């Protein structure tokens, strides 16, 4: 009976061994094949084959630990894996692994940082063309922009240097050789110190809260592209205002002839056209006074000839700034008076 039992055991072990050898083959040169498909595919040291079946290779730690799969040569190494927090990564630097790309179970993908958006990049992006979906059938509650409520003039444009030290980066580790961890291949890129131009997100949020986004770390971002239709709407409004004012000027010329045109008296100085013109926030009026001028002032009138303001100017001054908040939108006339004589008169336009 014992002999029979031993015989049955030997037969089972032999059958199992034959089955394993049928699925796992090792060539004399060390090439390994796993699977039943023939002929043997060429070109790899380890080949997993199959036909009409799903093929999987798994690295499976029993607990929520970090697991990585690496491909490497004597200098460079890249790995794919998962960390203990459930984030997937593409790694570099076998001797001291660091993540260069990260993704989560929601499909959010980060390059150089843990993603807070579907695609989250810490660095510059270069493309030939960016196309934004703008199909009408994908939009609802469509309404024209009310130019009177745009308030673009309230935004503060600034210049700045980028400071990325407050951002969480996943690619700040130096790269070393695979077989020699003392030999540094590359270091993280130095911070870009060039001057940039834009807005401050906290300030934009007070005027256009719908254009500001906040990630889970409290970092604010701006949807700059959405400013394009706002700018177009503002430009259309200003163009309409300018055309209306031009029409008013032509009407006044037709009604009063040359009475609005003054002769320039340059014996005591010159008056120049304000810039910018039209304006909405402020404008600069430049002038030149001769050395024989004892007193001078600039007077501001409406189109009906009513004096609205007067600005006393020193004889050494060269310009005067007028704030748009001091006046209502419209067209105005300003004149330079020096030593009691009219030097010149010009018009300016204040838009909404």
Notes on the protein architecture:
There is one protein chain. The protein has 352 residues and is α+β, with helices and mostly antiparallel strands. Among the domains are: 1-57, no CATH class; 258-350, Immunoglobulins (Immunoglobulin-like, Sandwich), CATH 2.60.40. The protein has helices spanning 2-23, 201-207, 227-256, and strands spanning 24-26, 32-34, 46-48, 67-72, 77-82, 88-92, 98-103, 109-111, 119-121, 158-161, 175-176, 184-186, 195-198, 212-214, 220-222, 269-271, 282-289, 296-301, 307-313, 319-323, 330-338, 341-350. The strands form 7 sheets. Strands 4-5-6-7-8-9 form a 6-stranded mixed β-sheet, with no helix packed on it. Strands 19-18-21-22 form a 4-stranded antiparallel β-sheet, with no helix packed on it. A 3-stranded mixed β-sheet has the order 1-2-3. Strand 7 and strand 8 form a beta hairpin. The longest helix has 30 residues, at 227-256. The radius of gyration is 38 Å and the shape is elongated. It starts with a helix and ends with a strand. The model is unreliable at 10-21 (pLDDT under 50).
List the helices and strands and how they pair.
Blueprint: H1 2-23, E1 24-26, E2 32-34, E3 46-48, E4 67-72, E5 77-82, E6 88-92, E7 98-103, E8 109-111, E9 119-121, E10 158-161, E11 175-176, E12 184-186, E13 195-198, H2 201-207, E14 212-214, E15 220-222, H3 227-256, E16 269-271, E17 282-289, E18 296-301, E19 307-313, E20 319-323, E21 330-338, E22 341-350
Parallel strand pairs: 2-3, 8-9
Antiparallel strand pairs: 1-2, 4-5, 5-6, 6-7, 7-8, 10-13, 11-12, 14-15, 16-17, 17-20, 18-19, 18-21, 21-22
């Amino acid at each position: 009976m014992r002999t029979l039992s031993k015989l049955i055991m030997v037969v089972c072990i032999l059958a199992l061994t034959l089955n394993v050898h049928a699925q796992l083959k090792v060539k004399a040169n060390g090439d390994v094949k796993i699977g039943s498909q023939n002929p043997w595919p060429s070109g790899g040291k380890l080949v997993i084959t199959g036909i009409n079946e799903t093929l999987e290779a798994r690295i499976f730690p029993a607990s929520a630990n970090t697991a990585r799969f690496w491909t490497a040569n004597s200098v460079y190494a890249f790995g794919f894996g998962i960390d203990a927090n459930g984030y997937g990564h593409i790694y570099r630097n076998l001797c001291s692994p660091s993540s260069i790309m990260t993704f989560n179970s929601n499909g959010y993908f980060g390059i150089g940082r843990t993603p807070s958006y579907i695609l989250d990049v810490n660095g510059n992006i270069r493309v030939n063309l960016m196309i934004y979906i703008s199909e009408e059938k994908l939009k609802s509650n469509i309404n024209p922009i009310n130019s009177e409520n745009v308030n673009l003039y309230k935004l503060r444009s600034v210049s700045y240097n980028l400071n990325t030290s407050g951002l969480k980066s996943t690619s700040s580790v130096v790269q070393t050789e695979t077989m020699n961890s003392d030999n540094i291949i590359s270091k993280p890129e130095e911070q870009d110190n060039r001057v940039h131009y834009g807005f401050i997100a906290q300030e934009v949020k007070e005027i256009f809260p719908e254009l500001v986004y906040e990630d889970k770390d409290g970092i604010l971002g701006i949807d700059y592209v959405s400013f394009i239709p706002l700018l177009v709407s503002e430009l259309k409004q200003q163009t309409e205002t300018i055309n209306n004012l031009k029409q008013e000027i032509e009407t006044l010329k037709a009604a009063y002839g040359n009475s609005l045109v003054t002769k320039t008296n340059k014996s005591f100085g010159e008056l120049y056209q304000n810039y910018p013109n039209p304006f909405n926030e402020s404008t600069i009026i430049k002038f030149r006074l001769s050395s024989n001028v004892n007193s001078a002032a600039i007077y501001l009138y409406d189109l009906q000839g009513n004096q609205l303001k007067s600005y006393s100017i020193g004889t050494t001054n060269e310009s005067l700034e007028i704030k748009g908040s001091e006046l209502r939108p419209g067209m105005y006339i300003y004149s330079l008076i020096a030593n009691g004589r009219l030097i010149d008169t010009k018009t300016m336009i204040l838009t909404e």
